[in-house]
Structures are given as structure tokens and as C-alpha cells.
Amino acid sequence: MILIYQPKQERQPTPEEWAAAMPAWEAYGAEIQKRGEFVDAAPLADVSSATTVRVRDGKRTVTDGPFAETKEVLGGYYLVNAPTLDEAIELAALCPGAQYGSVEVRPLVEM
User: Fold this and answer.
1) What is the pLDDT of residue 7?
2) Which run of H or of E encompasses 25?
């Protein structure tokens, strides 16, 4: 899984900012599909919509917001079928989010 972290934003991008950013993301998605490694992808809603659930000693606690205060937030993901870690790292480096945030590569646990 390729997890895309981006700097926290004080405001939502304008429609013009979205339009300017989208060609890079569309090209990235097309490249992964062309390689036959694309499985799924989705952006996440703004971090302000997050809800965190914890259970400690049988007691459930629900809080608004993300699980921790950080300078970057998880903004979306790509699920890819990369045959090796090196291939997954190559795909992560191609991700537009790597240019301004960070991209984490994490294998799924096979059950």
C-alpha cells in the first residue's frame, strides 16, 4: 500500500488549485494502470472529519479528529500489486505527493 502524507492545510484548495494539480495525479494513476499494478486508490476526506476510536480496559472512547497531532496528515492511498519492495519504492517515488509530503510504502498482511 502506498500511503500519501501531506502537510496540514489551513484551508481547502480552490477549484483552480485542484485543476492545476490533477494532471499529475491522473498521469500517476495511468502509469500504475499501464504497468498492471493498480488495485485501488482513494483520497481521504479532510482530517477535520476524522473520528478516533480507542478501547482501553473495555471502555470505548470516541474523539473527534485524527489520532495524533502531526505536521503531516494521511491524505489518501494507492493499493498496488508490486512484485518487489524495490518496485513499490519506484512507484512511491513517482507519486506526485512525494514532491511536497511523504509517501509510505507498507505491505499488507496476507491472511
Assistant:
1) 83
2) helix 15-34
Which amino acid appears at position 27 of this protein? A
- 50 Rama sector, left if φ>0, alpha if ψ -120 to 50, beta otherwise: beta
Residue 62 is classified by DSSP as E
Domain 2-105 homologous superfamily, CATH? Dimeric alpha+beta barrel (3.30.70.1060)
Amino acid at the residue 83: P
Q: Which three cell numbers stand for residue 21?
A: 494539480
Q: pTM higher than 0.85, yes or no?
A: no
With cell 488549485, the residue in question is: 17
Per domain, the residue ranges of the chain are 2-105
> What amino acid is encoded at 62 in this protein?
V
